[in-house]
């Protein structure tokens, strides 16, 4: 029985998606006979993150939590950085304490905080373990692309740390071909070190899940077409494309619902009010049950990825949409991985600009049967390719190969 030590700042029951995925992976490892120990921080992803004990065992997983000194939330970068530092120091101490009393075969880290992979590589070298690194985002690249001002000397040092981390790693698991390309071509990581394993729906939606009363609450009729955008409303997401198209569609029964938050949300709300766009609605982040109900009430889901980010991350909500049997419209560069996926499995449509988006919505409004057909293919694709059990098996294969 192989013993696995997992380190990541966020972990169940915290709200961060990386921590939720990490917990699912750990549960899968235990199911397949691995011994799993987790070092994580006290729940801190948001100010409302639930408290948790310093140690507990959940379904065979031993979970050690290190104190972050009461730091919670991510809105203030200084608070976030303080949490990062406290976690890295605490995790290093706790890992040494554990590794000095028992042996492990593999150490596995994700990417929260950004330098946790470096910590994993140091521990792997010191205690002679195999190291698996799972970056769901590629740093510092994604921070630079999203507007973080990082001094050049710090970026240079960060890349040196990355180089060491990649060198020590026995395997690096990424989400897409584009991310693998970034590591191999830009970071000079040997191709045979990098494995692509996609995500799964979080949550996975059962087709028998009840719908929401959201249509009634927002006065959206059952025969009106409802398009859902759920996710980040940040500066790099060209959401104006949706609003400008919505304005042109003001007089036909098509509605657009935005769920989420981000620095651009305020300007989007102002644009809707100023231009009198009446078929657009905004809601804050929803709990899982409510979100699933709203998703089931929608007809089509929208995914946007900026060209500058397409090889650094992958929009994970896509898999939840597919699990619900909802076709996806992607607004993205034609060579983005998500565009290739939608084309390969014929489970949606891809457009690159406002004109194409507007014409597509107009076409779908006139022919609803296309939506039903693509929706069936979306669900079939999820069941055959992206279901959680199938993805977990890919992780098992990687660990068994070491």
TrEMBL record:
> Which residue ranges does the record assign to the Glycosyltransferase subfamily 4-like N-terminal domain?
19-198
> Which SUPFAM superfamilies does the annotation name?
UDP-Glycosyltransferase/glycogen phosphorylase
Entry keyword set: Transferase
In its UniProt record, a GO molecular function of this protein is: glycosyltransferase activity
Q: Where is the Glycosyl transferase family domain?
A: 214-370
* InterPro entries the record matches: Glyco_trans_1 (IPR001296), Glyco_trans_4-like_N (IPR028098)
Short name of any one Pfam family annotated for the protein: Glyco_transf_4
* CDD domains according to UniProt: GT4_WbuB-like
At the top level, the lineage of the source is Bacteria
Indicate what this protein is called per its UniProt record: Glycosyltransferase WbuB
Q: Which organism is it from?
A: candidate division WOR-3 bacterium
- Give the source lineage, highest ranks first: Bacteria, Bacteria division WOR-3
């Amino acid at each position: 029985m192989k013993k696995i030590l997992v380190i990541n700042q966020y972990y169940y029951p915290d709200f961060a998606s990386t921590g939720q995925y990490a917990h699912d992976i750990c549960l899968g490892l235990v199911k397949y006979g691995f011994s799993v120990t987790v070092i994580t921080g006290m729940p801190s992803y948001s100010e409302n993150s639930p408290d948790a004990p310093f140690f507990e065992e959940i379904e065979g997983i031993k979970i050690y939590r290190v104190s972050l000194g009461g730091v919670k939330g991510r809105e203030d970068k200084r608070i976030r950085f303080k949490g990062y530092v406290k976690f890295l120091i605490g995790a290093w101490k706790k890992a040494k304490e554990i590794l000095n009393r028992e042996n492990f075969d593999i150490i596995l880290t994700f990417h929260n905080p950004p330098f946790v992979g470096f910590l994993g590589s140091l521990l792997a070298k010191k205690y002679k373990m195999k190291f698996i690194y799972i970056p769901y985002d590629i740093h510092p690249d994604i921070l630079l692309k999203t507007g973080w001002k990082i001094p050049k000397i710090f970026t240079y040092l960060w890349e040196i740390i990355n180089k060491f981390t990649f060198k020590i790693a026995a395997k690096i698991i990424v989400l897409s071909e584009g991310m693998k390309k970034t590591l191999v071509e830009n970071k000079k990581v040997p191709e045979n070190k990098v494995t692509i394993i996609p995500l799964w729906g979080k949550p996975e939606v059962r087709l028998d899940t009840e719908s929401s009363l959201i249509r009634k609450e927002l006065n959206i009729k059952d025969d009106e077409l409802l398009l859902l955008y759920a996710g980040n409303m940040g500066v790099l997401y060209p959401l104006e494309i949706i609003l400008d198209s919505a304005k042109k569609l003001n007089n036909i029964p098509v509605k657009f619902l935005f769920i989420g938050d981000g620095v651009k949300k305020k300007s989007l709300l102002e644009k809707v009010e100023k231009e009198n766009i009446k078929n657009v609605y905004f809601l804050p982040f929803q709990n899982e049950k409510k979100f699933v109900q709203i998703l089931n009430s929608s007809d089509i889901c929208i995914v946007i990825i900026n060209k500058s980010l397409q090889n650094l991350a992958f929009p994970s909500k896509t898999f939840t949409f597919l699990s619900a049997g909802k076709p996806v419209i992607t607004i993205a560069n034609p060579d983005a991985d998500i565009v290739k996926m939608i084309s390969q499995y014929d489970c949606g449509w891809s457009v690159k600009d406002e004109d194409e988006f507007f014409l597509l919505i107009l076409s779908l409004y006139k022919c609803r049967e296309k939506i039903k057909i693509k929706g069936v293919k979306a669900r079939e694709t999820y069941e055959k390719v992206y279901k959680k059990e199938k993805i977990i098996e890919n992780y098992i294969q990687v660990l068994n190969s070491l």
